[in-house]
Design goal:
Elements: E1 3-7, E2 10-13, E3 18-25, E4 32-39, E5 46-51, E6 58-60, E7 68-73, E8 78-83, E9 92-100, E10 118-119, E11 123-128
Parallel strand pairs: 2-11
Antiparallel strand pairs: 1-3, 3-8, 4-5, 4-9, 5-6, 7-8, 9-10, 9-11
Length: about 130
Amino acid sequence: QVQVVESGGGLVQAGGSLRLSCTASGLTFDDYMMGWFRQAPGKEREGVSCISWSGGSTYYADSVKGRFTISRDNAKNTLYLQMNSLEPEDTAMYYCAAVKSPYNYCSGSWLVPDGMDYWGKGTLVTISS
């Protein structure tokens, strides 16, 4: 049984940092492209960032480019999202997701909610102004 569990959310002031983690079990982690999504109240779920199975290819949404860094540790079956210079607009539930992919590549076209195989339940990030 596949399990995807996020952690690391919380309440921080604008300008602060948070590091999200996501641990996946029940799957061969390095067979999967991994992604982070977020959903703010009243808004659709949107792709934030993705990383290929080796970590050699990454993608960021324009809204987070230069502030967020995605990484993975395949030995630990863990995905990370380092979030710096946080803004109130970053307030959302953040979800980790996985899709099986033989390609060592990810892009915005891969980072769509309907295309993912497995999801976590999310971790809440709240940024105060």
